[in-house]
Amino acid sequence: MKPEHFPGDYSFDPLGYATNKPDAWLRDMKMKELNNGRVAMIAISGMVAQELVEGVNLLPADYVVGVGGPDGLKMLEQACAGAPNEATCATAFAAAEKAAVALGM
Fold first, then answer.
1. How far from the centroid of its chain's Cα atoms is residue 53's Cα?
2. Nearest alpha carbon to residue 69 among 44, 18, 103, 98
């Protein structure tokens, strides 16, 4: 590292928002960006934890439309058969079915 290097300063400002701005403003904006990024990481961690605990996709429509293709609803129905929490699985299936109908599958 060079002695003049400031952590987090990568000199990337393609739209020129930071030009002619006071240093205090720039430091404040950097801190806000860091804090918002941290909150987003905590939120995603919570979503992943919920999926792991419940065993159901948080966004089942993404699974049906993006990965499952036209047979995605059938695959989801088979996965829900005999699931420990069948009510949650049925709710996820209903949401996926609505998404598939809305997309004309």
1. 17
2. 103
pLDDT tens-digit map of 8-57: 666 667 677 788 888 898 888 888 888 998 999 999 999 888 878 877 66
Q: Which residue has the tokens 């987003």?
A: 40
C-alpha distances (whole Å) from 77 to each of 80, 82, 86, 95, 103 are 5, 10, 11, 12, 18
CB 55 within 8 A of CB 84: yes
How does pLDDT run across 70-79, given as a tens digit for each residue? Answer: 566 666 667 6
Residue-range domain boundaries for the chain:
18-54, 57-105
